[in-house]
Design goal:
This protein has 452 residues and is α+β, with helices and mostly antiparallel strands. Helix content is 27%, strand content 27%. It is built from 12 helices and 23 strands. α7 runs parallel beside α9 and α7 packs parallel to α11. The structure holds shikimate-3-phosphate.
Length: 452
C-alpha cells in the first residue's frame, strides 16, 4: 500500500516579523516561461524559476514531450532548448499535472492540436475542479476532448494530423486568466484570428510574455473593466531570456503577517507588482496597512519593486468588487487580516473562491470559527466581524497551500497555539515556507508523519 506524507504545522502564538528577503519566484510566470520557452526557436535561460511542485509539473510535462530542459539549479536557473511551434513529441503515458490548475487549463489549449493524442491527469483536488470552462471553447475551435462525466479531468485530447483549429471570438463567462490564456494559446495554432473578451482585468502574464517572445497581439480596452485581446494563428516565438520576479501571492502572507503583528517591519525584495496582481496591496492599504514600495523597475516586461510593510492597526472594509480578480489568490490571507481588523469586512463577487484548490470560502470560515472568530460564508464571499484575537485550536487546510500558510500567519495574533493539518501542498507554491517564515520571526514548526 502506498504511503503518503502528512504534514502538520504547529504555530505558537505571538511574535513579530522583521528582516529583508526574497520570497520564491512567481508561479504564473514560471509556468508560462516553460510553455513559451519550449515552443520558441532558440535557447532560453530562465532565472528565478519557482521550484514548487506546480511549476515543476509543467517543466516535467514538456520534458516528457521531448524538450531538452536543464535545471533548475539552486538559484532557479533553467535552460531550455526550444523546439519551435511544431517540435513537441507524443509523451509516453499521461501527463501528470499534480495539483496544478494552471498547468491543466493552459495545456488544454496549447496541446489541443499537436498532431498526437495525450491525456492530462491530476491529483484528487485537480480532478474535481471545473474544466468545462476550458474544454468548451477549445472544442468550439475544433478540438476533440474527452472528459469525465462532470466535465472534469482526466482530459483526453484526441489530436490526429487532421485537427486544424479555427479562430474564435469568445467572451469569457467569468474573469479568469487561466481560461483567457488557454484560448490564446490554442489560438496560436488556429486558422485566422482568435479573440478573447474579458469582463474584468485578470493577470496578463500570457499576453506580456507572448509579446516578449515577439508575437503580435492586438489589445483593446472596451471600457474601464472589459478588454478584448486578439492574435493571428500560425506565427512563431523568438527565444528571449526571462527573469522571474518574486511571487506577490507568496509575499501576501508576509504582508498580512507584518500588518497584524505589533512591532513588525519587513521588506520583501524584487516582488512582481504587475497591475493585474496588486489587489493585495490595494485592499490592505484600504484597511489602513502601512505599505511602501521602493526600487521600482521593469524586468523582462514585468514591473517589480521592494515592498516594506510595517505594523499598523487595520479597519474592516467592504472590499471593492473590482479588486477581486486582482487579488483572487489572496483572500485566505486577507481573511486573516480582516479577523484582526476593527469592525466588519465584507467580501462579495468572489464565487470563484469556491472552485480553487479547496472551497476557500468554506475552508477559511470553518477554520476561523474554530479559532473563535465571528464570521460567516455567503454564496459569493464572506462577512467577518473582526477585532478579536484568535483562540488556540486545530484547523484543517484541506490540502490547500494558501489556507495552510494563512492560518500559520494567524498565530501572530493568537492567544494560543494553532495546529494546521494537511500542509504538504505548501510545496506546490512555496518550497521552504517554514524556513523563511521562521527566520523572520514566525514561531512555526512542521511535523512529518507517514500515513498508510
Ligand atoms: C492563474 C490564474 C488564477 C489564479 C491561479 C493562477 C494563472 O486563476 O487563481 O492561481 O496563472 O493564470 P483564474 O484565472 O482561474 O482565476
Amino acid at each position: 500500500m502506498s504511503k503518503e506524507q502528512s504534514i502538520t504545522y504547529i504555530a505558537q502564538p505571538g511574535g513579530q516579523l522583521s528582516g529583508e528577503f526574497r520570497v520564491p519566484g512567481d508561479k504564473s510566470i514560471s509556468h508560462r516561461s516553460i510553455m513559451l520557452g519550449s515552443l520558441s526557436e532558440g535557447t532560453i535561460t530562465i532565472s528565478g524559476f519557482l521550484q514548487g511542485e506546480d511549476s515543476l509539473a509543467t517543466l516535467k510535462a514538456f520534458r516528457a514531450m521531448g524538450v531538452q530542459i536543464s535545471g533548475p539549479d539552486e538559484e532557479g536557473k533553467v535552460v531550455i532548448n526550444g523546439v519551435g511551434m511544431h517540435g513537441l513529441r507524443a509523451p509516453h503515458g499521461s501527463l501528470d499535472l499534480g495539483n496544478s490548475g494552471t498547468s491543466m487549463r493552459l495545456l488544454t489549449g496549447l496541446l489541443s492540436s499537436q498532431g498526437f493524442d495525450l491525456t492530462l491527469a491530476g491529483d484528487h483536488s485537480l480532478s474535481s475542479r471545473p474544466m468545462k470552462r476550458v474544454t468548451d471553447p477549445v472544442v468550439q475551435m475544433g478540438a476533440q476532448i474527452e472528459s469525465q462525466e462532470k466535465g472534469t479531468a482526466p482530459l483526453k485530447i484526441c489530436s490526429n494530423d487532421n485537427t486544424q483549429l479555427k479562430g474564435i471570438d469568445y467572451t469569457l463567462p467569468m474573469a479568469s486568466a487561466q481560461v483567457k490564456s488557454c484560448i490564446l494559446l490554442a489560438g496560436l495554432y488556429a486558422e485566422g484570428q482568435t479573440c478573447v473578451t474579458e469582463p474584468a482585468p485578470t493577470r496578463d502574464h500570457t499576453e506580456r510574455m507572448l509579446q516578449g517572445f515577439g508575437y503580435q497581439l492586438d489589445i483593446q480596452k472596451l471600457d474601464s473593466q472589459k478588454s478584448k485581446i486578439c492574435l493571428q494563428g500560425g506565427g512563431k516565438l523568438t527565444a528571449c531570456d526571462i527573469d522571474v520576479p518574486s511571487d506577490i501571492s507568496s509575499a501576501a502572507f508576509f504582508m498580512v503577517g507584518a500588518s497584524i503583528s505589533k512591532g513588525s517591519d519587513l521588506t520583501l525584495n524584487h516582488v512582481g507588482i504587475n497591475p493585474t496582481r496588486i489587489g493585495i496591496i490595494n485592499i490592505l492599504k484600504l484597511m489602513g496597512a502601512d505599505i511602501t514600495l521602493s526600487n521600482e523597475k521593469e524586468v523582462g516586461g514585468e514591473p517589480v519593486a521592494d515592498i516594506r510593510i510595517r505594523y499598523a492597526p487595520l479597519k474592516g472594509i467592504h472590499i471593492p468588487e473590482e479588486q477581486v480578480p486582482l487579488a483572487i489568490d489572496e483572500f485566505p490571507a486577507i481573511s486573516i487580516a480582516a479577523a484582526c481588523a476593527q469592525g466588519q469586512t465584507i467580501l462579495t463577487g468572489a464565487e470563484e473562491l469556491r472552485v480553487k484548490e479547496s472551497d476557500r470560502i468554506q475552508a477559511m470560515v470553518d477554520g476561523m470559527q474554530i479559532l473563535g472568530i465571528d464570521c460567516e460564508g455567503t454564496t459569493d464571499g464572506m462577512i467577518i466581524n473582526g477585532g478579536s484575537e484568535f483562540t488556540s485550536g486545530t484547523v484543517d487546510s484541506l490540502g490547500d497551500h494558501r489556507i495552510a500558510m494563512s492560518f500559520a500567519m494567524a498565530s501572530l495574533c493568537a492567544k494560543g497555539a494553532i495546529t494546521i493539518k494537511d500542509c504538504a501542498n505548501v510545496n506546490t507554491s512555496f518550497p521552504d515556507f517554514i524556513g523563511l517564515a521562521h527566520s523572520c520571526g514566525l514561531n512555526v514548526t512542521s511535523s512529518n508523519e507517514q500515513e498508510a
